[in-house]
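Quick one: structure for this chain?
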Amino acid sequence: MLFVVVAMVAGFVAFGNLRRVRPVGEPTPSTTAPGAADDVPVTIVIPARNEAASLPNLLGDLAHRRPAGARVVVVDDHSTDGTAELAARHDFVMVLRAPDLPRSWTGKTWACHTGAAAAPNGTLLFLDADVRVGPGALDAVVAEQRRRGGVVSVQPFHDVPTAVEQLSGLCNVVTVMGAAAGSRRPNAVFGPVICCDVADYRRVGGHAAVRTEVVEDVALGRRFRDAGLGVAVLGGGEALRFRMYPDGWRQLVEGWSKNLATGAAGTPLARALASGLFVCGLVHASLVALQTALALATGAPAPDGMAAATTVAIAAAATAVLLRRVGSFRWWAAAGFPVLTAFFVAVVVRSAWLTAVRRQVTWRGRGIPVHGDLAVVGAEAGAPGTDRS
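Got it. Here's what it folds into:
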C-alpha cells in the first residue's frame, strides 16, 4: 500500500497544476484586456485532410468566436471527401491546396508550413480541425501569448463520449506529465492549439525545422525553448475541446501508438521516472485487484482484505481526480483503472516496437518512417483521414 501511495504522489507532482484557458471577459491577471493590440493581425491556420465531418463544426465556431479581424486559412491536404469545398462555403475562409507532399516531410508539417507561409507579420494560431472553440477562448489565448511572448499552446479538454474512447484516459494523463504541461517550464507544446508570433515562428525554423518528426508538436516546442523563447501550456477546460479518435478502436490504437513512444523519447529523466513510478503504482494496484478477484472467485488464499481494498481505493481515487482534469471521463473509467492501465501498457509496448524495431508508424493509411528519409510509403496523398503527424 505504501508503494502505491508514493507512486500516486509522484504522479500528482509530475502532473502539476495545469492552468485552464480563461475566456476573455473573466477577470484574471494572466490575460491582457480584450481588444489589446487589435492592430496586430491574427492568422488562423487549419491543416485539414478529409475533415468533412469535423471542419464544419470548427468553422461554425470561428464564424462568431474568432479574434476581431483574424484571417482564417484552411490548408486542404489532398482531401477526397469535399473538405475544401465545405471550407470554401464560408466567406471568411481562405482555402489553400497543399502542393504534393515532398519526400522529406510528414503530412501535417507540410500543411502547417503551407498555411504559415501565407501569414503576414503578426500572430499565428494553429488549430486542428477537430477543435471546438468556446466564446472568448481564442482571444484569451492570443492575449496570453502577447503578454508572455514565445509560444503558448493548449491541450484541449478531451471529449470521450463512447466506452472505447474512455480507454484514452491514462494516455492523456501521462502525456500531460511527460510534457511538463502543468509546470512553469513545459518540455513541449500540443499541436491542436499553438499560438506564437510570426517572426518568432520563422526564427526557430517553423515546421520546416521539424518536418521529419512524427510528433512534430513536441519537437516544435523544443525549438522555441532552445532558442531562448518562452513556452507555456494551458488546459482547454470548457473553452477549448476536441474529440481525438471518434472512429473507434483501430483509430484509437493507431493514434496513441504513434504518439506515446516517439513523444516519450525526449522526456527528461526525472520526469520520465516520476511518470513511470505512477504507472508502476497503477500496475501494482491492478494486480492486487486481480488477485483479490481471483481469490473470491476460486476460494484461493486472498491478500489482506483491508490493505487490498485501501490500495485499490487509493489508485482509483487518484485516477479519478487526474482523469477529470483532462477529459470527460466517467467515474466507471476510474473505477476500472486496471483496464485503462492494461491498455496503456499494451499501447506503449506496441509503440516501442513500431518505433525501435520497425521504425515506422501508421496513421490513417500513411506509413511514416520514424527516422531517416520520410517517404510516403502508405496510401500516398489520397489516403483517407487526417494525418495528425
